[in-house]
Amino acid sequence: MERKVAIVGAGIAGLIACKYFLSKGYKPIVFESKSRLGGVWCKTIETTKLQTVKQFYEFMDFPWPESEETYPNHEEVLAYIESYAQHFDLIRHIAFDTEVVSIDYQGVDEEEIMAWGMWGGTGEVFSNKGKWNLKVENTRTRSSEVHQVDFVILALGLVRDVPYVPEFPTGKGPEVFQGDTIHAQDYADMDYDKARNFIRGKRVAVVGFGKFAVDITAECAAVNGKDRPCTLLFRRKHWFMPETKNWRNLLGYLYTSRFAELLADRPGRGCLHTLLATTLSPLRWLFSFLSESYLKWKFPYKKYGLVPKYHLSEAVTTCKVNIVPEGFFDRVDDGSIKLQKAEEFSFCKEGILVKREPEPVEVDLVIFATGYRGERKVQDIFVSKTFRNLLTGPDSKIAPLYRQCIHPRIPQLAIVGLAGSFSMLFSSEMMCKWVVELLDGTFKLPSVPEMEKCTKEWSEYTKRHGGKTCLPAIHIWYSDQLFKDMGLNPRRKNGFLAELFEPYSPSDYKLS
Ligand SMILES: Cc1cc2nc3c(=O)[nH]c(=O)nc-3n(C[C@H](O)[C@H](O)[C@H](O)COP(=O)(O)OP(=O)(O)OC[C@H]3O[C@@H](n4cnc5c(N)ncnc54)[C@H](O)[C@@H]3O)c2cc1C
Ligand SMILES: NC(=O)c1ccc[n+]([C@@H]2O[C@H](COP(=O)([O-])OP(=O)(O)OC[C@H]3O[C@@H](n4cnc5c(N)ncnc54)[C@H](OP(=O)(O)O)[C@@H]3O)[C@@H](O)[C@H]2O)c1
User: Fold this and answer.
1) Is 414's C-beta closer than 6 angstroms to any atom of ligand 1?
2) Are the CB atoms for 351 and 361 separated by under 8 Å?
3) Which ligand does the CA of 431 lie closest to?
4) Domain ranges of the chain
5) Residues 287 and 255 sit within 8 Å (Cβ to Cβ)
6) pTM of the model
7) Which ligand is nearest to the CA of 209?
8) What number does the ligand 1 atom closest to the CA of 188 have?
């Protein structure tokens, strides 16, 4: 019997899933709400570049075109994704302008599902009783229809569509401000001339200290110079990386080798690992000391009181490693960027009032680069309140999944591209590979209680590290698990020393 598979989203994760399903003989249908594939790479701010070296952000069986660029710009990234889709003939499987507004599991009672001891009741991927009904809407005509399928892959992405703006008490929020407020996404959605004209001549404050915040601040400073400095308003200090390949290579040795992972915390670590990590902790401290000293030498962290209160190793663990735009600190030095720490702030008529600062920061425009709540897209797509609750962890984040793909109690469904990674393309590809092998019967899932034990260990781990599921500090350990499940050898290097000390990169996981 032909099994129907639906993939929701045609960003990199959905496209990779489509390619892997096609390779196993399935005929998936990909629903994409936009009229273009590529997800976040379709439209972003003008200066966006890849911040992962391109060899790490590479489809396993589709190399980048030859060029000198280590960090291609967003147009090159989008062109690369589009040529991947063309090369593997994926486009004809995509229903563009088609939003999946809800998904509903039909055929089995929720009470029965909750009592299952094996995934889907029997441990089999497909069931003859249960199916998913996907309600889809054409985004142009708003006409809707329902598709019934046997398996769903959610590849909705986390960092678009649901912008987050902090809430303020009444009378202290944007409503009292005489200028404009927008989110980084509104700015990213403008065409480049419009964006430049929009900020030209304005006194701008950008809120946040993530990648969008520093990039938009640099763009504003380039347009307005020191006559109208751009204020970057941040509540916590963070480590930023330079755009040099050698530095990235060094980070690889310090943080992404098997030896480095022996020193790191991990979900469900046992006594032996804890003992080893504790014994070797001076080494981890030394790695942090060396890399942080380099960054403090390279950038004026001390001069501007920017030294973060946590170690670089924790930044790697929690996916907080962003590249600072070239020339950023020169613009701080020449006065076109002002850095303003603000643990708390509110609005007034003239601009922003920073707690304990006597004078307001007078501005005409505030851009919130305060991130996204993409988890809501994933949770809200389920009709079932029970499934929504199962997927909601502390702080409304997504509860950890088994192998970061499967919820032990939600049958016939996988979610890819949620866990943070040093290369979201690489981790999405590993997940898709694992999911199709599962569907192909290469391996079976353990019982629901065993899977829940793993997800509980992940919950405890994420609680220890900021609440977000992140793979960079343990990506070898994680990839080992996927490879072992698929019956493949996780040891990918030649020789004991290389296995222990050489950084692992996506190329190690290519299968010939
Ligand atoms: C500007 C920017 C730069 C980045 N740079 C890097 C980088 O250098 N390195 C890195 O590793 N990561 C980077 N990231 C993270 C990035 O999100 C991932 O690398 C990756 O592109 C995400 O792919 P995705 O397919 O998971 O999600 P997305 O690209 O967000 O794609 C999801 C797709 O699903 C569609 N969709 C959503 N909901 C529905 C629905 N209900 N129905 C139908 N379709 C739907 C969306 O329209 C979208 O096309 C960057 C993110 C941004 C925003
Ligand atoms: N490749 C590229 O060039 C590129 C470009 C843009 C974006 N991206 C990626 O896109 C994703 C989203 O980036 P992002 O910058 O939008 O989001 P982000 O990384 O989540 O950063 C959000 C920032 O907003 C701050 N913030 C949140 N709530 C706040 C509040 N109430 N008050 C003050 N500050 C608050 C956070 O501060 P705290 O740190 O204190 O929590 C954080 O600095 C990331 O994965 C990023 O790497 C990549």
Assistant:
1) no
2) yes
3) 1
4) 5-160+373-509, 169-233+338-369, 239-319
5) yes
6) 0.96
7) 2
8) 1
CA distances from 331 to 58, 221, 227, 499 (A): 33, 7, 12, 43
Q: What is the 3-state secondary structure (H, E, C) of 67-88?
A: CCCCCCEHHHHHHHHHHHHHHC
The count of other CB atoms within 10 Å of the CB of residue 347 is 22
- CB of 72 closer than 6 angstroms to any ligand 1 atom: no
Q: What is the CATH number of domain 169-233+338-369?
A: 3.50.50.60
Mean pLDDT of the chain: 95
**Residue in 15, 47, 415, 424 to alter for ligand 1 test, most ligand atoms within 8 A of Cβ:** 424
Question: So what's the pLDDT on residue 255?
Answer: 86
Residue 182 CA to ligand 2 centre (angstroms): 15
The strand pairing partners of 356, in sequence order, are none
Integer Cα distance of 284 and 278 in angstroms:
10
The rounded percent of the chain whose pLDDT value lies above 70 is 100
pLDDT at 269 over 90: no
What's the pLDDT at 68?
Answer: 73
What gap in Å lies between CA 348 and CA 364, rounded to an integer?
12
Q: Is 417 in the pocket of ligand 1 (CB under 6 A)?
A: yes
Closest CA to 376 of 328, 407, 325, 418: 418
> Three-state DSSP class for 404?
coil
pLDDT of residue 501: 93
**Spatial separation of the C-alpha atoms in residues 80 and 65, rounded to whole Å:** 8
If you average pLDDT over residues 294-318, what whole number do you get?
94
In Å, how far are 94, 104, 106, 372, 439 from 150, measured between CA atoms? 18, 12, 10, 31, 11
CATH number of 5-160+373-509: 3.50.50.60
What are the pLDDT digits (tens) for 21-58? 999 999 999 999 999 999 999 999 999 999 999 999 99
Nearest residue (by CA) to ligand 2, atom 29, is: 370
